[in-house]
Each structure stands twice: as structure tokens, then as C-alpha cells.
Amino acid sequence: MEANPAHSRLTTIALAFMAIIWVSPFSWLFLNAFNPAATGSPAIPQSVGLDNFASAVSGNAGRQFLNSVLIAAGTATLSVVVGIAAAYPLSRLKIPGRNAFLWTLVLLRMLPSAGVLVPLYFAAQRGGLLNQFGVIIALTILNLPFTLLLLKNFFDTVPIELEEAAYVEGASLFQIVTRIVLPMSRAGIAVVWFFSFTGAWNEFLLPLIFSRVEAGFPMSVGLFAAFGQQGSVQYGFWRPIPSSTQRRRSAYIFYCGGT
Fold it and tell me: Which of 62, 99, 129, 152 could share a disulfide with 124, CB 3.0–4.6 Å?
């Protein structure tokens, strides 16, 4: 059966329109990133440079970038380690009500971060964890239900006969887990790690409450604080304005139409 040419053209036009809508925000982001004088308008930049990227990895912004990497990588790694230690027994031991326990944790995770912020804050305050390490622990606790459920499902796919054969050959439990179970579950471990990393990288509320000092802010909090201080958005990247005198002078020049 031959395809209708008119129908094919309409389908092509519809798909092209959807592709343009999908790509447009990324194109705007790309153009503003390489434009040193970005204004936010969807225009071809007159000059192209890496000034915005240099600003992002230097000075105060560079410290905030390192804080974000530390919090995100620490949360992802700790989530994987704790998740493996807890998910493997849940996968292999016949614990009554284990599935109900896991799904209860997942349902509790549906609560927003603000709903558990007060008990987390007071627990961290008493434990002296109102710092970046406290943020890592708090985010690990919030990620644990998803981590346990996903890793348990991956461990369930590993044939238990392989573990029994290794045990007969004299392998210890540690060797069975590290040489058989974990290599065969590396896809699930990678998914859990990247999921935890991106979630911790985008987290705003917990680092804001726990860090409390600008030196400990990640980029999610630092950019928000910088925009609030300036009162305007520099679309390429934010740069601190030296003083209020310079702001008044710039406003006067703009009002008079000068340069």
C-alpha cells in the first residue's frame, strides 16, 4: 500500500515544527552561553568567547561550583554504598513484609522536602551537622527509598545459582558480592548514582538551610543569591557590580542616552 503524499508532507511539517519547539530553548541557552554580551534575546551573537565559562570556574562562582560537585558526588556515592548494603539482604533474605516495607518507604518519599525539613534540621543541629556533610547525609536519607527499590530489583535479576556455585568453590560473602553481584548489576548502580547526583546538584532548599554561610553555598543557591543582590539577570553569567555609585552612574547614562 502506497503512502499518501499529502499525508506524508503534513507529518513531516508537524514533526519539523515539534523539533523546532524542542530545540529552541537549547539553542537560546547555547547562544547566550558563548555570547560575552548576552541580553537574553534570541539573536545571533556579534562576538563569541569563553568569558562566561571562565567566570563560572573562577572566584566565588568557582568555589560554589566545587561545593556543588562535592555535595552531588558525595550524595551519589554515599547513596550507592548504603543502598547496596541494605538492598542485597532485602533481595536475598526472605524477610516477611519486605515488599510492603519498600513501597511504604517510596510512598513516604513522595512527601516534599519541606515536609521533613523541620525534623531534619533539628536532628542536624543536635548532631553538629549544619554544614556540607550534613547536606550530604540529609540528601542520602531522602534518596534511600528509591535507591533501595531500584537496587533490589537489579539484585533480583542476578541468578542465585552463580552465588551458590561461588560459595561451593570457597568464595566468601564479600567476594560473592564484589565479584559476581555488583559487576552484573553495574547498570542499576550507574542509574542510581547519576539519579542521586543530578538530584543533589539541583537541590536548593536543604543547602540553603544547612549551609547558612555564603562560602558553603552550591551553585543552585549562589546563583539565586547573586541575582537577588544585583536585581537583574545577566544571561551569559552573573558578575558582581562593584558599588551602588557605579549602578547610579550607569542608570544616569542610560537615561540620558549617552555611552
Answer: 129
